[in-house]
Design goal:
14% strand, transport, membrane, hydrogen ion transport, ATP synthesis, Peroxidase, domain 1, alpha+beta, four-stranded mixed β-sheet, 178 residues, single chain, 62% helix, cell membrane
Length: 178
Amino acid sequence: MAELTTLARPYAKAAFAEAQEKNALEAWSDDLSVLAAFAADADLAKILVHPSLTAEQQAAALLDVCGDKLNDAAKNLVAVLAENKRLSLLPEVSVLFEELKAQLQNTVDVVVTTAFEMTDAQQNKLAESLKAKLKCDVRMSSEIDESLIGGAIIRAGDLVIDGSLTGKLSKLAEAMNS
């Protein structure tokens, strides 16, 4: 995974620089998410790495399925990635682009996993607390995982806060066994 990130980073940075220069962050974000979705498709992924196809043929196959959804700059990115045999990096390029965009906009995506549905008041209170702690705007989404029994697990980038009952029981079991 780290190798994919290392390979994808220059392309994501170049796309981000282009998007900033043209004031087109949202358009690039949309284009990269479309490209990433198609590149991640199992059938199309086989074509994108098929050794008997030329770079132009691989790029053309991807651009054909995307149709008219892409701007010219995104099509150029596809051509460069194909030329360098890197079309399979598109999902990672998209993720890195979104991280760069979030840094610029001073936002963070937070995923809260709970055992039960959270009320709007609970979500708002948690979002405000995280905004104060992380010192940036918070875009929150939630998931339900009944195996947590109670509490929550909060994921914000590299930060993970495990306040679940299952997590606390696991820590207690480790402490008792050591």
